[in-house]
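Ops channel
N.P.: pipeline sanity check, posting one input/output pair.
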């Protein structure tokens, strides 16, 4: 009897957990006599027909590996050449695929949703270290990134303490401060600054003053890359607003920590350093929690396909693995709630 075939791709910024999800898709599909073809480099794969085989022999060791063996890109098939959508449809036919599993963040899920509205049989798996996809408690990649940022803060704490310094730690997160809030709490940051709640320099300086008054001669500031600081003139100061944008219209961020360093040095006269964690947060082996989450989401995605329940995204909802519509997944960007922000500020200063 001939076996069914499905495709899988990883799109957007990579993160730990993608490989365990790919592995779970392949293992679970095999249980249902389904073969899996990997599309390379995000949506560029199905546009160009670039694939790699994903048999059981290929995926044994990838549970431990960071990144994605499929490669990734921020290709947006709805931007540029209009024939790209037809190419995707043609290639899905050419490779005789019953359905496609798209593993990605808001952009990848957005494309998956549009394609699914055009009749393609697609199931999504939510990933991003930013944890900003709605309809899932957590995205894969987030737990590992929190761990990396927290461990980095632990290291920065000891050197800050030795030199009586203020160290600013710039953490990824363009619109959402989840990663900064979680790692700031876990790493015991004295000030946590996130994109959702802009603060001015007085707020930051008062917090540092209160740290000092407690007899602590050093401080750690966790700041998300997309944070805006309100200047003395009341205007928001944002890093790199003139940087180039990607295919989904996102500006490349980075540098708010350096700006804050200069402002704080001037204002306080203290020794201030700034560290950008950057892509370190996206690299390395997934944590145990991330491996379990990624595996569970991969399993659920294949279950959707087996049950012909397309147009869905596997999700963690209220602690249970379930499924939501792709529409729900992309409906709203999940930003930090007031409640969680308040919690993150409890030990400020
Ligand atoms: O994956 C999301 C993200 O980590 C954002 O927080 C960050 O701004 C962006 O990716 C950077 O991605 P890249 O440099 O790979 O384009």
């Amino acid at each position: 009897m001939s076996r069914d075939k499905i495709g899988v791709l990883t799109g957007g910024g990579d993160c730990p957990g993608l490989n365990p999800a790919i592995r779970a898709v392949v293992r679970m599909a095999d249980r249902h006599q389904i073969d899996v073809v990997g599309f390379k480099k995000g949506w560029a794969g199905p546009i160009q027909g670039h694939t790699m085989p994903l048999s059981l022999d290929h995926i044994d060791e990838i549970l431990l590996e960071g990144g994605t063996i499929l490669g990734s890109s921020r290709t947006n098939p709805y931007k540029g050449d209009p024939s790209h959508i037809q190419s995707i449809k043609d290639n899905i036919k050419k490779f005789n695929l019953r359905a496609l599993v798209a593993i990605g963040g808001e952009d990848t899920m957005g494309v998956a949703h549009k394609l699914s509205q055009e009749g393609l049989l697609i199931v999504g798996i939510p990933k991003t270290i930013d944890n900003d996809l709605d309809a899932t408690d957590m995205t894969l990649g987030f737990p590992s990134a929190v761990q990396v940022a927290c461990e980095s803060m632990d290291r920065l704490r000891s050197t800050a303490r030795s030199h009586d310094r203020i160290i600013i730690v710039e953490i990824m997160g363009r619109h959402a401060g989840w990663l900064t809030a979680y790692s700031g709490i876990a790493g015991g940051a004295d000030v946590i600054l996130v994109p959702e709640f802009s603060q001015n320099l007085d707020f930051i300086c008062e917090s540092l003053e209160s740290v000092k008054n407690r007899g602590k001669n050093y401080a750690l500031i966790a700041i998300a890359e997309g944070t805006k600081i309100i200047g003395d003139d009341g205007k928001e100061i944002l890093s790199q607003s003139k940087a180039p944008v990607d295919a989904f219209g996102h500006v490349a961020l980075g540098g708010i920590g350096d700006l804050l360093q200069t402002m704080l040095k001037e204002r306080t006269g203290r020794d201030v350093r700034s560290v950008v964690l950057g892509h370190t947060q996206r690299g390395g082996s997934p944590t145990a929690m991330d491996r379990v989450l990624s595996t569970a989401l991969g399993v659920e995605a294949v279950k959707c396909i087996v049950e012909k329940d397309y147009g869905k995204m596997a999700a963690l909802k209220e602690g249970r693995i379930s499924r939501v519509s792709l529409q729900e997944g992309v409906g709203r960007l999940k930003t930090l709630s007031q409640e969680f922000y308040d919690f993150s500020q409890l030990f400020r200063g």
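N.P.: looks fine end to end. The two ends are 67 Å apart (CA to CA).
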